[in-house]
Amino acid sequence: MRRQAKNGKISAQAIAGTYVVLLGIDIDEQWANDSGLRGFAIRRTDHTENEPAKFLENFRRFSGFEKEPSSDVNPFQEFVWSDYTAKEDHSYTFQIVAKYGTPGQLLNGPEVSVSIDTENSSSAAHKIYFNRGVAASQAYARKFHNESPEKVEGGAAFRWLSRGLEEALVAFIERANSSEYELRAAVYEFKYPPVLHAFANAAKRGADVKIIVDEKKNSKQEPRKENIEAVGEEGIADLVIPRESNPSYIAHNKFIVLRKNGKSVAVWTGSTNISEGGIFGQSNVGHLVEDGSVAEAYFLLWNELSNDPEAKAVKPWNEEATPLPDASKIPTGTLSIFSPRSSLDALEFYTECMRNAKSSVFFTAAFGINETFKKVLEEKTDFLRYVLLESLFVQKGKKREIDEDIIYLMKRDPNDRFAVGAYLKGDVLDKWLKEKLSGLNVHVRYVHTKYMLIDPLEDESVLITGSANFSEASTTKNDENMLVVRGDRRSADIYLTEFMRLFHHYDFRNRVYPVSPKLKREGRARTIKRGPGAPLDETDEWWKRFYVANSPRAKERILFGPR
Questions:
Q1: pTM, 2 dp
Q2: Strands 480-486 and 333-339: what pairing?
C-alpha cells in the first residue's frame, strides 16, 4: 500500500509491506537552507493496538546527547527511513516533523502526517511470506542475548526468526484435509521434521500426497543423505519419489501444488528449502499463488518430473510449456518459467528485463553475479540499481577468491548500489551490541532469495521470483522454476520493502566493516569517523548532499519521495 501527504513546505510518501513501512520525505530546499534543517523526528501512532503516539528511536545522536534515543531529540538525518517494527495488518499514522536549531534545543518546523495500513500476507491472490532473514542482528542480540535459537526456551527465537513463514507453509499443507485433495511437491532439501510431519498428516487424513525429492548421488551426498534420513525417521518413504537422474545437476525446485477434486487450486513456491536453515536462517520467501491456471502449470511440470527424466528430455518440455515473452511486452498478470532449458534464453530474458528498466532495479544475487548480468551492470544508467549480495567471493576450483569483476562494478558507477552479507563482529560502536551468527547455515549464511524487481514504484512493475539463482547452471542444468508477475502493486510493495530492509541492514554493516580490504585501500569503504558510528551532523552539510543534482542521494530522495 502507498499513501502520500503534503502540508506546505513538507511532504511524504509511505510504502507499506507486511512488516515494514518505508517513508520517503521531501522538504522545501529554501526553507531547509534558511532555517538550518537538523533532521526529521518521526512519531508513530498504532491505531490497531491503540498504542500511544511515540517517537521512533535513532541510534545516531548529537554529541552530548548520546543517552537520548528519541528522534525528537536526535532526529534522522536521512530522507528515506523505514520502520522495521511495524506489524502485519495494522493501521498506523506517521507524523514527520522537520527539526531545526541547536542540539538540545531543537525547534519544530513544518510537519506532515501520513496514515497507512500494512498488508496482510494472506489477503490476496499472491500470498507472500518473508522470514526475518538476518543471520545476526541488533534486535536478536537485544531480545535473545545472542543465544543459539535452539537454546531459547519455548521456541521463541525460532518463531521470531520465522516471522510467519513456517506457519504459513504448514498451514498450506494442512489445507489438504480429506480425500478430496492432492498434494504434489518437488523439493531440494527435505529435512525439517515439522513440515515432513505435516505431509504425513495430510496423507493420514486421506489426501493423495506425492513428493519428488532430490536424492541424486554425488561426491558429498548432498542433500541426498540427510533427505533420506529425514524421510526414514518420519516414516514417509512411500510418499517420496526420488529424483536421481542427472547426478551432476541438482533438483532445485521448492514448490507444492494443492489440488481439489482433480483441479489445481494453488501453488506454493519461492526460495525456501524445507530445512531449519532455509526457514529460520538465511533470507527466504515463500510465495503462494491462489490461481488455478498457474497451479496447473506447476502440476504439469510435476507430472513431467515424476518419471525422473534426464535433462535432455525435460528441456524441450520446459521450453514448450513455458515459452518466454518479449521482455519489452510482458503481459500483465502472472506467468511461469521452468528450467532446465537447452539454451540461456531465460537468463537472457531476465537481463533484458533489467536492461529495459526505466526508473529502478532491485536484485538479489545469492551466488554471485552472472556474466550476462555483469554486462548489463556495465551499462551506465541515469537511475539507481540496487544489488544485494551474499558474498564477494566466488569458487574457483578448490579456492574461494574475491570476484574482481564485482569490485570493479562497485567502484564504477555510483548509481549502482551494492550491499553484502555481514555482521557486527565486535563492540566497535558504543551504542551497538556485538552480533553473533545463528549457526543455522553454513554455505549461504545471509542472502538466499532469488528475485528481481523492475520499476516497482511504477504502475507496470515487473517482479521475477522463484528458485533459480540467475545463473547458467540454474538455466541449463538444474530443475528450477520462476514466477514473472507484472502490474501487481501489492506484491511489488511487499518485495520492495523487504529488499530495502535487508539492503539497509547489510549496507550499515559494510560501512562499519569494509566488505573487502581492497575496497578499503582504494577509498571505497567509509571509515568509522564518517560512518554510522559518527555523531549527527550539526551543520547544513548533511542535507545538502541530498539536493546535489544527479547525485545518488538526490536520486534516492526523489525515487522514494512523494510524486
A1: 0.96
A2: antiparallel
